[in-house]
Amino acid sequence: MILLTQKLHLGVIIATIFLGLIACIPEDSPGIDRGVRIRSVHSTWIEEKFQTEIVNLGLEKLGYQVKPIKEIDYPPMYIAIANGDLDYTTTHSKKAHDRFFQNSGGTEKLERVGVLIPNTHSGYQIDKKTADKYNITNLEQLKEPEIAKLFDSDGNGKANLTGCNPGWGCELVIEHHLDTYELRDTVEHEQGEYIALIADTISRYEQGESVLYYIFNPHWLASELKLEEDAVWLEVPFTSLPKEHGSITEQGTSLDGKNLGFPVEDYQIVANKQFLADNPVAKRWFELVKIPLEDVSTESLRIKDGENKPEDIRRHAEEWVEQNQELFDGWIEEAKQAGD
Questions:
Q1: Between vectors from CA 249 to CA 248 and to CA 255, what angle results, nearest 5°?
Q2: Residue 139 maps to which CATH number?
Q3: Stated pTM of the model
Q4: Do 163 and 248 belong together in one domain?
Q5: Among 14, 150, 254, 295, which one is least packed by beta carbons within 10 Å?
Q6: 3-state helix, strand, coil in the chain (%, to 5)
């Protein structure tokens, strides 16, 4: 009897402690209430940490236990999310990354959510001085050997086009364009580490040479070689993309009346489908949060200028939240309602 009484007292004590701990958890913190941890990932492209930190700051505010951000390149990051080893990424471009999405399980395992960064765009640019002098406005003009030679940096008679990293997706579009627009004989695609290639391109431009390069926004390059001051867009003769991009019209590749040849699209969040089903508050947050393209470009330049440590980028994200506090808080309150 004494032993039974002691066990009952011990059970009461444990239950009291447990209830006390629950009472300490804020009622408006659905993540902690469920003990949910969130594991985010972006590619090894350091600029992508900024938007990931902003999204994570919101998840922390909502009470989720946010784990340190992982850095994994494409396509393994999609496979990890599909398998449930990670939960989400902020770096999904629907057209450029569609093959990663589909090959990792597609809509059975993954889900695209919200519009995080609207109107991202990319294409080909040349320096304005050369464009004005030779009246170059279209990529197709590089079929002419004399025009192509203007951008020859290695002496082989072909234009050197500064391209993008293998595996990003944009390199496949560039390769497709070289074939479709019949530019193989006069243009060569320089691939490798984009930052190193662009640094060389800028150096050549500063020395007065003609330059031809691929550019995407958001990125700091747009602040270094300013549109209509240092550089101009080259239009493409017509819209043509690899078949995995699906059917895209000229309107879908045009920006400000110019056909840039690449899809103008939004960066979205991609998350594990089961994770979203289990966490409606996180899903609603993903649907609401938006970051202007200009803010991401500004952050890219800060990183390029040396504020590139993880703690720097975390601070930048916190500053962005402070500068957009009213909007941020509104998203938080609306996301909480999804857990009611």
A1: 105
A2: 3.40.190.100
A3: 0.79
A4: yes
A5: 14
A6: 50, 20, 35
pLDDT digits (tens, 9 = 90+) for 137-167: 999 999 999 999 999 999 999 999 999 888 7
CA 134 distance to own-chain centroid: 35
CB burial of residue 13 (10 Å; 0-12, 13-18, 19+): exposed
Domain presence at residue 22? no
Burial state string for 158-180 with b = 16 or more CB within 10 A and e = fewer than 16? bbbbbbbbeebbbbbbbebbbeb
Q: Encoding tokens for residue 317?
A: 């994200």
Which among 143, 140, 137 is positioned nearest to 125, based on CA atoms? Answer: 137
Structure tokens at 100: 């990663």
Query: 26 — alpha (psi -120 to 50), left (phi > 0) or beta?
Result: beta
In a domain, 98, yes or no: yes
Angle at 261 between CA 131 and CA 252, to 5 degrees: 130
- Together in a domain, 156 and 256: yes
pLDDT tens figures, 85-114? 999 999 998 877 888 999 999 999 999 999
Distance, in Å, from the CA atom of 152 to the CA atom of 297, rounded to the nearest integer, reads 29
Query: Which is nearest to 212 in space by CA: 186, 237, 176?
Result: 186
Distance CA 297, CA 307 (A): 14
Ramachandran sector of residue 133 (left: φ over 0; alpha: ψ -120 to 50; beta: rest): alpha
> Counting Cβ atoms within 10 Å, is residue 294 exposed (0-12), middle (13-18) or buried (19+)?
exposed
Domain that includes residue 311, residue range? 30-118+266-337
Locate 248 and state its tokens: 């895209």
* 72 in any annotated domain: yes
